[in-house]
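Record 1 of the preview.
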Amino acid sequence: MRDSWVIALLSTLSLLVMGSLAWANRDRVMTGHNDFVSFYTGARLVGTEGLYDVAQARAFQERLLGRTSEAWRFIRLPYFAALLWPLGRLPFHTAYLVWEALAIAAVAGFVLLWKPTARPITVLFTCLSLPVAVTLMNGQDLTFVLLFLAASVYALRQGRPFLAGLAFALCAVKFHLFLLAPLLLVNRRNWTWGAGAAAGLGVLLLVSFAVAGPAWPGAYYRVLTDPNIHPGLEQMPSLHGLVGRWGWPAPVDWILAAAVAAVVAVTAARRSFEYALAAALAGGVLVSYHSYLADCTLLLPATLIVLTETASRPLRMLTVVLLTPLTGFLLLMNSPATGAVMPLAVLAMLALIGLDAARRPAPAGQPL
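->
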């Protein structure tokens, strides 16, 4: 009972701190002049040739808000714009309120569905998560990815791997953060899950071609390779950001990425699906070319799984550090030294996961 009160108090204090951050950024948070503009733009332009057209997007945003920004380019797959089509039928500010309500509901859904960790612990560290707070303040979509991940793990625990794969496929909204997920198939027991994920991705691609026509991959590629959508190298928690901010040669990035992939593969071969998923999520943030603090939302389920499944004291201690807002605040300081703490800490966590996985496989679901 005493522990419950402590967790409730810490969770409340965390929400107050995050609320103060939202108030400090209220001009953006209250008006919706944040990443939601890009989603609303996609919802309005889906089904036209202007979905990935810079000029049409800028013209629409100028008419809508009297301003535009490179950060408001629609950079999701066409199917996601189709899913957002109903929001595009609403006035902008109404649509933004609905979006934020849905995003908060997705966080609640994650907490309710997430089974690898005791719920009080999940509640506490979700409230402590600076990336989750930043996602909500910036009108981003990472909270929905949290919900999809929780639904996938829940279905897998219910003995429905194909359905779990279908739920996981919805994470394609941020596909660049899941580049290491195919390595989970190193373990043959995961093949049914993989079949479900492949089927789900196939449907999403069919929808994309249906709403955007056959030429959208080329237009989308030009968007993704535009350097204007990858600003702020010093704020990236990835290997790309780490190597770039310190001026290391590009091969260092490739070598580290290969090492991260090797850890995920070894973990998938020797440990539980959930432990391997944690490695793939953390590794995905590292190897992504385009990732920022909000994308570290994926570290929440990753670190919760590691904290539950490992008996390694150094790994547990490092995991707790990553679950607090400390590394996130250091990333926001725009200093090469402090900004490197986040990717280095995640790299260290993956190194310890690799050592842990190389030992005799341990049973999943050890109590926290």
